[in-house]
Design a protein that fits this description.
alpha+beta, 17 helices, 19 strands, 20% strand, FAD-linked_Oxase-like_C, FAD-binding oxidoreductase
């Protein structure tokens, strides 16, 4: 493949075709450390035209391409396999803010722009981009789009699909689809934009996007609330919506075990409560207007919740510093889990009204299947997305724990399927769960997805082994 390497060097420059093992290393291992791959080369184009030329060269040579953004995938979606046949195509050099339209409230960006940079550019224009993730300092817009990222503000603003107006995509044959339209209304056929969002790089390479911006909130009110369980949290959600309407921006749930783990593993976090509650909810309101009035609205809702027995304690942040400390607890979950040890992770969604019953049923089922297993449950309660993570019993080894993994995960996924939920709410399928897709997708749905894949990528070169079984 020396000829291909030479051609790629002529397209992007020799310095941006990484061949040496030590140069490639950061691109070949996923962030959680679960997957280690290999690559013929890591290629770093600087423009859409260079991406198109690289893709055309790879399709001519029949070499697979693995698109990669900030490399923060939790499902191995941006990590190549171990064969070393693929090119890793990193978009990290494509990091321009192309345009900001304060009147139309849009921003046009390269796919390699880090999410925090988009947030900053919106803020500089007096506007707001609401996607917020724990990895926002490293994840990129292209990756967020490929996985249809959600985050903590979905309750008010929606997932990445709902935050996107237009896309620019390099197709598997090297052609460029220019769909960078900043239109709120466009009823002229199939929504191709939605086809590529959530496709995990299996249908093409997203190189640019038009994103929606919103008025910058001038007031926030944040509270940590102690509740008895998920059922009480759902009742608190209903009450909060009745009092606060669409000001309710985030409603994050943590079980007692999850909160205790965070506080133990992350020394810079502090509990807002005198003791450890049975469960906790982190609530945030945002609005345009007076912060005192917004805080008073939240306090009124919490007072009613306390009177009705839905909450046993509530602490309202008195300033921005305290609010950040509250959020630091929630944002530390992923790192705390890594420090705690290996886990069986399930990024799931069920209808919101069924969350409490799902947790109760699953805790009993996994506990019966493997006594001593430790559920660590947290997530975006308001939109039905829970992270149902299971830590090993302390009296068995990691190897013994993983022997039970397939059985435990099957229990979880069977219950999700029974409730018409999703086995991947926001992390994507990647190379973690393609084999499980037939268990949760009807045959016709899988057939249609495979037909789309084969139509756009007939040689199967785009991110092989990800998302779809056998693709």
């Amino acid at each position: 493949m020396t000829e291909l390497i030479t051609r790629l060097q002529s397209i992007v420059g020799a310095a941006h075709v990484l061949i040496a093992t030590e140069d490639q290393a950061p691109y070949l291992r996923d962030w959680p450390g679960k997957y280690q791959g290999a690559a013929m080369a890591v290629v770093r184009p600087a423009s859409t035209e260079e991406v198109a030329a690289v893709m055309a060269a790879c399709v001519e040579a029949r070499v697979p391409v693995v698109p990669q953004g900030g490399h923060t995938s939790l499902s191995g979606g941006a990590t190549p396999d171990a064969t070393g046949r693929a090119i890793v195509l990193s978009l990290s050099r494509m990091n321009r803010i192309r345009a900001v339209d304060p009147i139309g409230q849009t921003i046009v960006v390269d796919a390699g722009v880090v999410l925090a940079k988009v947030q900053d550019a919106a803020r500089d224009a007096g506007l707001f981009f609401p996607l917020s993730l724990g990895s926002e300092g490293t994840c990129t817009v292209g990756g967020n789009l490929a996985a249809n990222a959600g985050g903590v503000a979905v309750l008010r603003y929606g997932v990445m699909r709902e935050l996107t107006l237009g896309l620019e995509v390099v197709l598997p044959d090297g052609r460029i689809w220019d769909g960078l339209r900043a239109l709120r209304k466009d009823n002229t056929g199939y929504a191709l934009r939605d086809l590529f969002i959530g496709s995990e790089g299996t249908l093409g390479i997203i190189t640019g996007a038009v994103l929606k911006l919103f008025p910058q909130p001038t007031a926030r009110a944040t509270a940590f609330v102690a509740v008895a369980d998920a059922a009480a949290a759902l009742k608190l959600l209903r009450l909060s919506r009745a009092h606060c309407g669409d000001r309710l921006t985030a409603f994050e749930f943590l079980t007692s075990a999850t909160l205790e783990m965070i506080l133990r593993q992350m020394p810079d976090t502090r509990s807002p409560f005198a003791g450890l509650p049975d469960a906790a909810v982190l609530i945030e309101l945002s609005d345009i207007g007076d912060e005192n009035a917004l805080t008073a609205r939240l306090e009124t809702a919490l007072a009613e919740a306390m009177a009705e027995g839905l909450a046993s304690d509530a602490v309202v942040a008195q300033d921005g510093t305290q609010a950040k400390a509250f959020w630091r607890v929630r944002e530390s979950v992923s790192e705390a889990l890594v420090r705690e040890g290996k886990a069986l992770k399930h990024d799931i969604a069920v209808p919101v009204a069924e969350i409490a019953d799902f947790v109760a049923v699953m805790d009993a089922a996994v506990g019966a299947a493997l006594p001593g297993i430790r559920p660590m449950v947290f997530g975006h309660l308001g939109d039905g997305n829970l992270h149902y993570n299971l830590m090993r019993p302390l009296d068995i080894s990691e190897a013994q724990f993983y022997e039970h993994g397939p059985q435990i995960t099957r229990l979880v996924h069977d219950e999700i399927t029974r409730r018409r939920g999703s086995i991947s709410a926001e992390h994507g399928i990647g190379q973690l769960r393609p084999a499980e897709m037939p268990l949760c997708k009807p045959p016709l749905e899988l057939e249609l997805m495979l037909q789309l894949k084969r139509t756009l990528d007939p040689h199967g070169l785009m991110n092989p082994g990800k998302l779809l079984p056998g693709a």
